[in-house]
Amino acid sequence: MAESWTDPANLSSALGVGAAARALEAGWLLLQAGNFSSSAPGPPVASAAPAQPRANLTNQFVQPSWRIALWSLAYGVVVAVAVLGNLTVIWIIVAHKRMRTVTNYFLVNLAFSDASMAAFNTLINFIYALHSEWYFGANYCRFQNFFPITAVFASIYSMTAIAVDRYIAIIDPLKPRLSATATKIVIGSIWILAFLLAFPQCLYSKIKVMPGRTLCYVQWPEGPKQHFTYHVIVIILVYCFPLLIMGVTYTFVGITLWGGEIPGDTCDKYHEQLKAKRKVVKMMIIVVVTFAICWLPYHLYFILTAIYQQLNRWKYIQQIYLASFWLAMSSTMYNPIIYCCLNNRFRAGFKTAFRWCPFIHVSSLDELELKTTRFRPTRQSSLYTVTRMESVTVLFDSNDGDPKANRKKRALQRDPSINGGSRRDSKSASTTSSFISSPYTSVDEYP
């Protein structure tokens, strides 16, 4: 019976954040089987001891108290900031009508998945990686192997949906935007696909109660090759493929937004919308790059330790795992910080949410940022409503009550040189300015 547990690859967790420290699990089971030796692909141990009788085995992965305290503080900060920050983002969007745009619906989905993963998995996986002991039962073992992949899939594909939406809105602005119903369908589809991808992790999750140790792991029916194949598929689907799509879309969007000014349309409304589009695209590019950087070491760790199993015997491999896992989990806390730093409305929302803090001051401008206002004309600007055929210029005059002023205004409106000359000229103006405004977009579309 002991020999059936000597292959560490059968015990390795799948990609997911889901199962902590596969090297630690494999090494412990090797110890239990009495086959641990310097040549075995076992775990890193601070002070390797010779194999002992099963009843006398002790945890070989105990760290100094000061190191445990530092890791606990680091993981605790991630969980606190991620949960509080992402819940605040959800509140800002849901509680304020002006924030309910297509992009922000996907941001809600992203914030929910990040907050859930931080709350339900980060500390559990940290404790398991630290002690190589599963304390939480069989049901939570299945959940912690299943849910992290689901949450990561939902996060990355929410970012991908935002990238595609930005691409359509900027490259083809006359195309109708996603409705609220269509956005909800897309979000629901993302979660269904995430559940299907992560389902094998739930199906094959098991706990093993051994003398002095309980383990949670994923036991694949066909062994290490099947596990490695699944691992590679997950990395492609939740990392490589979506990042490729976002890289291509944001490249085209960046060329369009920063490649040069649109000739023939220099109104203030145009510059306002162009600036808003640039801001939201810049914010989302930073979010995507942050995600890619945070998750890269974690993926590399599992690939390298699967291919070169002798790395599991390295003295500091447990610290490498804890560091790469911390960096991956820290991706859940950066997005609210990025929103707050780069977006005026989110910053106003955070100030409103934390106005009870003595050092937070909410100005009248902050309150106006979150109010529902469709148009914000300036004194010397024109407001354009653009259709496929023509554009109409509305002139705002502070002397609406003056009869003389009204007669002058009517005369101006009859003057072809003011209103664009001919229908042909009007159509030309519409074509030129279609980039900046359409029947389906307004300034409020950009958070």
From TrEMBL:
Membrane topology: Multi-pass membrane protein
Annotated disulfide bonds: 141-216
Transmembrane regions: 68-94, 106-131, 143-164, 185-207, 227-259, 280-308, 320-342
Predominant location category: membrane
Top-level taxonomic group: Eukaryota
Keywords on record: Cell membrane, Disulfide bond, G-protein coupled receptor, Glycoprotein, Lipoprotein, Membrane, Palmitate, Receptor, Transducer, Transmembrane, Transmembrane helix
SUPFAM superfamilies per record: Family A G protein-coupled receptor-like
GO biological process entries: positive regulation of flagellated sperm motility; regulation of uterine smooth muscle contraction
GO cellular component: plasma membrane; sperm midpiece
Gene Ontology MF terms in the entry: tachykinin receptor activity
Annotated G-protein coupled receptors family 1 profile domain residues: 85-339
Pfam (any one): 7tm_1
Compartments, as annotated in UniProt: Cell membrane
Region spans: Disordered: 397-447
Composition-biased stretches (Low complexity): 428-447
Family of the protein in this entry: Belongs to the G-protein coupled receptor 1 family.
Protein's name according to its UniProt entry: Neuromedin-K receptor
Source organism per UniProt: Jaculus jaculus
Gene for this chain: Tacr3
